[in-house]
Amino acid sequence: MRKKTKWYAGVLGLTTAGAIVLSSGAASSHGYTDLPISRQKLCANGTVTNCGDIQYEPQSVEGPKGFPAAGPADGQICNGGISRFAQLSAPKAPSGAAWPTTKVTGGQSYTFRWQFTAIHATTDFKYYVTKAGWNQNHNLARSDLNTTPFLTVPYNGQRPSSSTISHTGTLPSGLSGHHVIVAVWTIADTTNAFYSCDDVTF
């Protein structure tokens, strides 16, 4: 199955088309990103320890939809506004060390991947990234982000056809060092969305 991927790149000043690649695979009651690896997945696989409840349910970062106009409050974006997952929004991992990052290259193709444990009717998937010079010393806020998504994948109420889906496209250029990608899966028939924060190094 292939779908058109609509790109919104206001900062880059261009619009392109990308492919959605659907694949089958094992999922570890909802969803999270594992490419780039998300904070909740790092906790679930033991790379980051002392994470609390999120280590047992990385798929459950479900908060209000409508981001960035609505959704989780500033400082709670990465935990979806769920207090028992607050560790995910801290600027450092629970150990006090930096969150591990995935190395990426701006301006080059990258495949984002979601794992699902329950598949929902979907409005879209959107991807946001922090700005150059963002404040890394506090919990992530909207002011740290380019609030125009660099990638939007519309689903128009359809359900993903697999427990694993991938969106392949080009990363924003002009960034360097540590950044956070916020991936948002918006559900069509509820008031919620799922949030994943992925730490990357450009």
UniProtKB/TrEMBL annotation:
Gene3D superfamilies xrefs: chitin-binding protein cbp21 (2.70.50.50)
Domain of life where this protein originates: Bacteria
InterPro entries per UniProt: Cellulose/chitin-bd_N (IPR004302), GlcNAc_Chitin_IntDeg (IPR051024), Ig_E-set (IPR014756)
Domain annotation Chitin-binding type-4: ranges: 30-200
Keyword Cell inner membrane belongs to the record: no
Signal peptide region: 1-26
Keywords recorded for this protein, A-Z: Monooxygenase, Oxidoreductase, Signal
MF annotations from Gene Ontology: monooxygenase activity
Stored Pfam families: LPMO_10
UniProt xrefs under SUPFAM superfamilies: E set domains
Family annotation (PANTHER family): CHITIN-BINDING TYPE-4 DOMAIN-CONTAINING PROTEIN, GLCNAC-BINDING PROTEIN A
Protein name: Lytic polysaccharide monooxygenase
Species name: Streptomyces hokutonensis
